[in-house]
Each structure stands twice: as C-alpha cells, then as structure tokens.
Specification:
Layout (H helix, E strand, L loop, with lengths): L36 E2 L6 H21 L4 H12 L3 E5 L6 H11 L4 E5 L6 H5 E6 L4 E6 L6 E5 L6 H5 L2 H6 L1 E4 L2 E4 L5 E6 L12 H4 L2 E5 L6 H10 L15 H11 L4 E2 H16 L3 E3 L3 H17 L7 H12 L4 E2 L6 H14 L5
Parallel strand pairs: 2-9, 2-10, 3-6, 6-9
Antiparallel strand pairs: 1-11, 4-5, 7-8, 12-13
Helix pairs in contact: 1-2, 1-3, 1-9, 2-11, 10-11, 11-12, 12-13
Length: 357
C-alpha cells in the first residue's frame, strides 16, 4: 500500500499534474515561488498500488541478477523515478552494463547501447544528414540517442567533444542538429559507465557533464557469498537473458509524475538547504553544491520516498541519497583528492547537520 501523509487523497483513475512551486523540473533552472509544502494531487490508490507493486517486482528481479548490490539497485531505481541519469564508475567486469540492460528489459524500454572509444564522433550518437541521390535531398538519420534508455559504455574513453554531445540531451531531453531541435522520447534516461580515472585511454569528465548526472555510483566487487551465488546462477546460462518486462514505459512515466507530487514539508526543505549550505562553507571544499544540485537532491529524495511507498519526504530520504547526489557536485581544494574523498566529506556533513523536527 502507498503510505499517505497528513492528507488522504481520493481515489480516481486519471491524474492531473499541478504546478510544482518548490522544485521545478530537473530540466529547468528557473525557481518557482516558495511555498510551505508541496501538496500531492489526488492519486488513484488502486492504480498507485499497482504501479508500486510493479516497480517492486523490477527491484526483486534485479536483485536476482545482480547479486549483493541491493543498495546500488535501489539508487539506480531512485534515479530513474526522479527522471535522472546515472554514472556508474568502477573497474570493468563488475556488472555495470548488465544492470543497465536488465533494467531496460524489465521496464520494456526502447534502449540503445554505444561503446565509447576515442574515435567516436558526436554524429555517431546524435545522427547525421545523409544525401539521397534519388531525391537530391538530405535525409536525417537518427542516432542511437533517440531511445528511452541510452547505455553509454566507458563514457570517459570518448573525446571531450563527443562527451559534450550528451549535455543538451541529458539536461533538456532534446538535441539540436544543424539548427533543428529534435525532442527525445519520454522517458529518457542515460546510464553511463566509466573506468576509474587514471586508466589508460580515458578522458576525465568535466564538471559541467558530471552535473548532468543525478547519481554517481560505484558497484564495487561483490562479497564472497554473493560471488558464489553469481557463479552458480551463470554456470549454465545468463539469467539476464531470461528477463521479461514486468512494467511498461508508460507506467514508468506515470510513476515519475507521482514523484513530482510527493509532499515536501518546509522543515524538510530547510534541512536540505542546511546540508547544501554546509558544502559551500566547508574549508576542505573549493566549490560547494549549486542551487541546481539542491533541486536535484530534493527530486531524488521524493523518488526515494516513492520507492519506500510513501507520498511524503522524510529527512531520512535526503540522507539516503545525499552522498550519491552531492559528492560529484563539489570541488575539492586539493587537486590530489578523489571522488571518494568528497563522498567522505559529504557523509561527515550529514552527520554534523542538525535535523529540524
């Protein structure tokens, strides 16, 4: 069941989305007038429970394929519900691409996969105009970015010019080619993988592109018991090849719209702002989190609440997603510091920031 907050919405099948005064869309940088809380629209309880049951089925199926990574699975699903993209950073072979492909199979998403290499061009991602001799005209052939889920393998092996081809798509769900704008399919999500910085043939992602990712996550190696289960599961066949859709893309889009309606109390927003402001004054950080980062943190907390079958945000939701959302949006003073160092600082800030009840 969907656990409601102070107000109990009435049952109805259709949902009309209200304006979102505290937190605009993640694709917009313009703030709306503040309000004490964001009130949910009336949600049809039967439909909502059905959708929540399906996303739970997706979560359970993923845990059967990706062993011992329940926290990573929850974070990726949270990002998808929040309409955000994910950057998975780790050594090759720990299941990053398998996770992305399994999500596409379980949610019936139109997905494309690109293998990033140093010679990959922007047109290889966006598409290009092809001359047609019969008609004497140029015809635009769409690239793999025209899909619901784009899997970009080893994104930091592509050149900075090619990496930049994804910026507009990730920020505004559109691409501009030869002065013509093309809207992308909805929902549109990018799950990118990258090798750790310092691996041969890699180009570090600039801050502007890192900021387009809602979450930056690390898979890490599985524990011994999970690796044993993984080897036994795949002794005869790959379990990910047997996955069947349990959720339609339209149902995902509806659940994403529910996320925008989750109640956010003013005190919870104040706690979030206190966390973000702490990153701006910490002496170990050169640059703190931007207001866009604040909005994305709030949206991620709303999605986390929905994944936990609630329609209101708790401080616990903010704490659960803060490290993955904020650690790649701050800049360390020491050039030798890593993303892990930033994550430790964000975690310390969470521990030190008072929760206002």
């Amino acid at each position: 069941m969907f656990t409601h907050g102070n107000e109990s919405p009435q049952t109805r099948d259709d949902v009309t989305l209200p304006a979102d005064p505290v937190h605009p869309s993640s694709h917009s940088d313009h703030a709306d007038p503040p309000r004490d809380a964001v009130k949910p629209a009336e949600l049809g309880s039967k439909k909502t429970d059905s959708l929540l049951g399906k996303i739970e089925a997706v979560r359970t199926s993923l845990q059967g394929v990706i062993r011992g990574k329940a926290d990573v699975i929850d974070s990726v699903l949270t990002s998808i519900l929040a309409e955000g993209s994910v950057l998975l950073e780790d050594v090759p072979g720990v299941g990053k691409t398998t996770l992305a492909k399994s999500i596409a199979a379980l949610i019936d998403l139109d997905f494309q996969r690109i293998q990033c290499t140093p010679d990959l061009l922007p047109s290889d991602i966006l598409g290009s105009a092809i001359f047609q001799p019969n008609s004497g005209e140029f015809h635009f052939r769409r690239g793999p970015i025209f899909c619901n889920l784009l899997i970009a393998d080893e994104i930091n092996r592509a050149s900075p010019r090619t990496q930049s081809a994804l910026l507009e798509a990730m920020a505004e769900s559109q691409v501009t080619i030869d002065s013509t704008q093309y809207q992308l399919q909805q929902p549109f999500i990018v799950i990118a993988t990258q090798n750790p910085t310092g691996f041969e043939g890699t180009y570090p992602l600039p801050e502007s592109q890192l900021d387009r990712f809602l979450f930056r996550l690390s898979m890490n190696y599985p524990d011994a018991d999970s690796e044993i289960e993984l080897l036994l599961d795949q002794a005869a066949s790959d379990p990910s090849s047997k996955l069947v859709p349990v959720m339609h893309r339209d149902e995902l889009a509806m659940l994403q719209s529910f996320v925008r309606q989750v109640t956010v109390d003013r005190k919870v927003v104040r706690y979030l702002v206190d966390l973000v402001n702490a990153t701006r004054v910490d002496s170990r950080l050169r640059i703190g989190c931007s207001p866009r980062g604040s909005k994305m943190l709030l949206r991620a907390a709303q999605a986390r609440a929905v994944l936990d079958t609630r329609d209101y945000v708790l401080p616990d939701d903010i704490q659960a997603v803060a490290v993955a959302v904020l650690s790649h949006r701050v800049s360390m003073r020491s050039v030798s510091s890593s993303w892990d160092d930033a994550a430790v600082i964000i975690d310390e800030i969470i521990q030190q920031t008072e929760v206002v009840v």
